[in-house]
């Protein structure tokens, strides 16, 4: 499997040398955007990335998510259409809540800086030596499915400007529309077979997740957003 984007279209160059070359090993000490996460501490890095992208509850419910949502990974409205619907876009860092909506709100997770790096994908998520151990596959499949959602969220230049809004910062503000379009140009080639079960679906209604959590997760609710 290869990176979802080419090195030429990457939007983050933190891993590259001053000459613009991609190093065989990283010269960075920490994960771009996360100075507390040391790249040489692989167990800690693995745990962090698992918490960043994996949603065990949704993976457990994935075979039954068709009962709660349209069975299509493309069931994601562009950002401008969320505005048309009167929905407030709420930033979340919880992967469980990405694309979950309730009433007039939808929760969206911003793309972390390091996911824009070709080096990060090839050396941490796709490396056959499994630097992230046995968790590498589920982290990669979850990260790939998550990244693919942005192909649908940002379809038009108007969506792009919404994503760059200072109140949201879903994508880096220094990126322009042409660069982002190049970066996402191959995302529609990502197959459901390559992503985690949750990402075979798009938007999820929280009221339904809360209802079915009692049955499939043996929990009182999936997520409380009122208290």
Query: Beta-strand percentage?
Result: 5-15%
What's the helix count?
8
**What is the H/E order?**
EEHHHEEEHHHHEH
Number of strands: 6
Low-confidence stretches: none
Report the end-to-end length measured between terminal Cα atoms. Answer: 43 Å
Helix content: 25-40%
Strand order of the largest sheet: 3-5-4-6
The description of the largest β-sheet is: 4 strands, mixed
Q: Choose one word for the global shape.
A: globular
Let me know the average pLDDT. Answer: 93
What integer value in Å does the Rg equal?
Answer: 18 Å
Layout: helices, strands, pairs:
Blueprint: E1 30-31, E2 34-38, H1 42-53, H2 56-61, H3 79-84, E3 88-91, E4 100-102, E5 105-108, H4 118-125, H5 136-153, H6 157-163, H7 177-184, E6 204-205, H8 206-216
Helix pairs in contact: 1-5
Tell me what you see in this structure.
The protein is an alpha/beta fold. The chain is built from eight helices and six strands; from the N terminus they run ββαααβββααααβα. It has helices spanning 42-53, 56-61, 79-84, 118-125, 136-153, 157-163, 177-184, 206-216, and strands at 30-31, 34-38, 88-91, 100-102, 105-108, 204-205. A four-stranded mixed beta sheet has the order 3-5-4-6. The protein has a two-stranded antiparallel sheet with strand order 1-2. Strand 4 and strand 5 form a beta hairpin. Helix 1 crosses helix 5. It is globular and about 50 Å long. The model has no long low-confidence stretch (mean pLDDT 93).
């Amino acid at each position: 499997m290869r990176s979802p984007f080419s090195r030429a279209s990457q939007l983050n160059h933190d891993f590259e040398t001053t000459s613009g070359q991609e190093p065989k090993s990283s010269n960075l000490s920490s994960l771009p955007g996360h100075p507390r996460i040391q790249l040489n501490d692989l167990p800690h890095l693995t745990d962090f990335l698992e918490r960043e992208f994996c949603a065990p509850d949704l993976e457990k419910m994935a075979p039954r998510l068709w009962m709660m949502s349209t069975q299509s990974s493309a069931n994601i409205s562009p950002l401008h259409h969320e505005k048309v619907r009167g929905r407030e876009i709420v930033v979340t860092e919880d992967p469980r809540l990405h694309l979950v909506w309730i009433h007039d709100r939808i929760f969206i997770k911003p793309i972390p800086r390091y996911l824009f790096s070709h080096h990060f994908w090839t050396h941490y998520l796709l490396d056959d030596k499994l630097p992230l151990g046995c968790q590498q596959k589920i982290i990669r499949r979850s990260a790939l499915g998550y990244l693919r959602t942005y192909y649908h969220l940002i379809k038009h230049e108007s969506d792009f400007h919404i994503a760059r809004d200072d109140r949201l910062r879903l994508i880096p503000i220094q990126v322009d529309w042409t660069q982002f379009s190049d970066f996402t140009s191959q995302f529609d080639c990502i197959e459901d077979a390559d992503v985690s079960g949750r990402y075979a679906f798009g938007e999820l209604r929280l009221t339904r997740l809360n209802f079915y959590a009692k049955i499939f997760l043996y929990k009182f609710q999936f997520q409380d957003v009122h208290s």
